[in-house]
Protein: Homoserine O-acetyltransferase
Organism: Hoylesella shahii DSM 15611 = JCM 12083
Amino acid sequence: MPLRIPDKLPAIDILMRENIFVMNNSRATSQDIRPLKIVVLNLMPLKITTETDLIRLLSNTPLQIEVSFMKLKSHTPKNTPIEHMMSFYEDFDVMRNQKFDGMIVTGAPVEHLPFEEVTYWEELTEIFSWARTHVTSTLYICWAAQAGLYYHYGIHKYPLDGKMFGVFKHKPELPLLPIFRGFDEYFNMPHSRHTEVKREDILKNEALTLVAESDFSGVGMVMARNGREIFILGHLEYAPNTLDTEFKRDWGKRDDVSVPLNYYPNNDPTQPPMVTWRAHANLLFSNWINYYVYQETPYNVNDIK
């Protein structure tokens, strides 16, 4: 089944050229199907790119999904046209009385700041609390995963000596979990971050389960509340060229930029990137939608609690 997304969202044309079947609201309303309601709190600077990346992965399911986009009232994006934000995003205040089957909270380029110094921290933590009673399962990505672990469970983040930048091999620690159904013994995941959470801090907290990690990049995925909260420390949603774009943007302009590891053949940035995570990314998002959202959410979305 296709995704149900707002009419004229830029991602529609991009994904249709990739032969991904999406359905706008006008057509979807003619089908007598109760779609899953997924809300995306998009904190990334390039909103349209992130929208497209996430919709591409959410499309890999036989279920009809209605995607909505949430924005913060306390933060105005600088890299996305205001017309786009007004057309496709709603403030949390407008959406707070709604309930959703699933939620995705993206990363944000604010990891250099203590959490409490992020200008929108108060509103963000209000949303984190709201999600526990208004969303069946929430997927936190990269900085949002660190922020969610800190707010809900007191897990601190720590600065790295150098940027964790590249594609790294991870091992599912509990391979029989539904989130890993169909996975191989190892899977690759891109990372692009300057901070980390410590393995020992996760293991000390009985409410948290470390479900995937890497010998090189450390904690990869953490789960809580039987999958109602899933924290992904990397970027499985990244498109093939995302790390390449970031590297070429910063190379020669910052002193903390190195070639992303395990990404270019022989680590040679003059070569086209190797895409080694796409199959597992599609599988993980499909498993999340099926086993942690669709199988767990009530038929009447307003019964979520």
In short: The domain at 3-303 is CATH 3.40.50.880 (Rossmann fold).
